[in-house]
Design goal:
This protein is mainly alpha-helical. The chain has two domains: 244 residues, Arp2/3 complex 21 kDa subunit ARPC3 (Orthogonal Bundle), CATH 1.10.1760; 224 residues, Hypothetical protein af1432 (Orthogonal Bundle). Helices cover 70% and strands 3% of the residues. The protein contains 21 helices and two strands. It has a two-stranded antiparallel sheet with strand order 1-2. The longest helix is centred in the N-terminal third of the chain and has 34 residues. It is elongated. The chain starts with a helix and ends with a strand.
Length: 493
């Protein structure tokens, strides 16, 4: 079966999943109608058949809009069943939460912005804005065409809840776009109370003069709903992160803590690799900032790019303390051990349920580059060798983050091994590393530009020159308690 046919098949499957999710939403609404009137729900359906039909059609169209949005804007998103299930899981949970608060506390106590915030952190801003719009109308048609609020006196509040849902979610997306701490997310919940209270005021203006207590009560419930949106977002984020293996800014911070289990193990079992990864992470983060990529993701990917070396840490130079296994085995076996660390790292990270993009970087950060040292050793021994047997298995970098880690990894290792670490020598080294990888087609699939590669080179030169700066020679003079010199031997610090 061709790749095109496979994609079309998966798109059809995603359409079927959308249809199943549609019926799942109807089932949830049906349960709501039963809860609202345990004894008379069947009479309500019989007497309001046209409203129920309007509900069925409206929800179908709203779900269809979601499908066609991704079909035309981000078709690759639909190819992964997990992505579709994530969206509808968020919709289900948010609808149920809003129903509980609206039905049993107050309509304005609904945490409308929770859905938009969850989508923002689990997906991205653009999708959060679009899906929040759909979610606002979904809540509206459920309220309008079911027995959730059958009392005529709350009809105006149903329309105001549509505006509140749209306004609260939209402002939350923009205010929390750069949020990186839980405290800032809670502050977002407080800040969205301002536009929410303005909306409540506009809908309550006719009643303020005669019943100002009702406005104060509505405003109080609206403040509660805004704050609850942030609190519930913090509560549900770890659940969705784990279930769907999504990467959020909060999880990135947890993964890049030196107390993270994998990093603790790396530091204990492969200290040389750990220290190398720390420096590569610093370089990758700086390069990511320079070209406008996700700096925290670059740092996290660099921390874990060499975890595959945990399988045989003593086989890698940075972890050796004198004995070198490669002196006793064939170059072919040595090359196989060395290149296997990318595959082992990928498998290890996937088994540990680490984010997919971090596992991908571990597999891609050497691309299909040759392992020159052992290839050259094989040529000396036998006079002939197949370069494929001495090359990494790939794939080549698929993202700019993977390309950044590839360059930073090689630049750090080459600079550390060099005797001359002057800025001029570092610049020549970095330029040669980038040019070699370009000649070998390592950047062909990651959409990185020549300008960005130039910026990365300049950034690395500046950073590596700072890390490996020249140090003056200090006399190694030792003093006793009387502060008398007992040794005057010179030593370079």
């Amino acid at each position: 079966m061709s790749e095109f046919a496979k994609k079309n098949r998966r798109l059809i499957q995603s359409g079927g999943i959308f249809l199943l999710c549609y019926f799942g939403m109807l089932f949830i609404v049906f349960l709501m109608m039963i809860i609202n009137d345990v004894h008379g729900w069947h009479l309500y359906i019989r007497n309001n058949f046209s409203s129920i039909l309007s509900l069925l059609v409206s929800v179908f169209f709203l779900f269809g809009i979601i499908y066609f949005y991704y079909f035309f804007e981000d078709r690759s998103f639909l190819l992964k069943t997990r992505n579709v299930l994530l969206i509808f899981s968020l919709i289900y949970v948010s609808v149920i939460i809003c129903y509980i608060f609206g039905r049993f506390i107050h309509l304005y106590a609904r945490p409308f912005a929770m859905f938009a915030l969850l989508v923002l952190f689990l997906l991205n801003r653009r999708q959060a804005l679009f899906l929040n719009f759909i979610f606002a109308f979904l809540l509206f048609v459920i309220d309008l065409f079911t027995n959730n609020y059958a009392v005529a006196s709350v009809n105006d509040e149903i329309y105001s809840s549509l505006m509140l849902s749209f306004v609260s979610g939209t402002f939350a997306v923009f205010l929390a776009g750069e949020t990186k701490t839980r405290g800032a997310l809670l502050l977002t919940g407080v800040m969205i109370t301002i536009p929410s209270l303005i909306v409540v005021l506009l809908f309550k203006i006719p009643e303020i003069a005669t019943d100002w207590i009702d406005y104060v009560s509505a405003a109080g419930f609206r403040v509660l709903g805004c704050v609850l949106a942030s609190v519930l977002t913090l509560a549900f984020l770890p659940v969705f992160e784990t279930l769907f293996n999504r990467l959020t800014v909060f999880r990135l911070r947890e993964l890049t803590s030196t107390n993270a289990p994998l990093l603790v193990r790396l530091n204990k079992e492969a200290p040389g690799t750990f220290n190398h990864s720390l420096i590569v992470a610093q370089l990758a983060e700086t390069c990511a900032v320079a070209i406008g990529e996700n700096a925290e993701l670059a740092r996290a990917a660099a921390y874990y790019h060499d975890v595959g070396k945990l399988r045989q840490p003593d086989c890698f130079t940075e972890n050796q303390t004198g004995y070198n296994l490669h002196d006793e085995i064939t170059p072919e076996l040595s090359a196989d051990i060395i290149r296997s660390h990318t595959r082992d790292g990928y498998d290890f990270l996937v088994q540990s349920r680490m984010p997919q993009i971090i596992a991908d970087v571990a597999r891609e950060h050497h691309g299909t580059l040759p392992i020159k040292y052992f290839y050259n050793k094989a040529i000396k021994y036998s006079g002939d060798a197949d370069l494929k047997d001495f090359s990494y298995l790939g794939p080549i970098p698929q993202t700019k983050i993977a390309a950044i880690v590839m360059i930073s990894d090689a630049a750090e290792a080459a600079t550390r091994a060099a005797a001359d670490r002057s800025p001029e020598k570092v610049e020549r080294t970095c330029r040669a590393i980038i040019e070699e990888r370009m000649d070998l087609g390592q950047f062909d699939e990651c959409d990185i530009t020549m300008r960005e590669l130039t910026v990365i080179k300049s950034t690395l030169v500046e950073a590596l020159s700072g890390i490996h700066h020249h140090r003056v020679e200090y006399p190694a003079i030792r003093f006793n308690r009387e502060k008398k010199a007992v040794k005057t031997e010179k030593k370079e610090e």
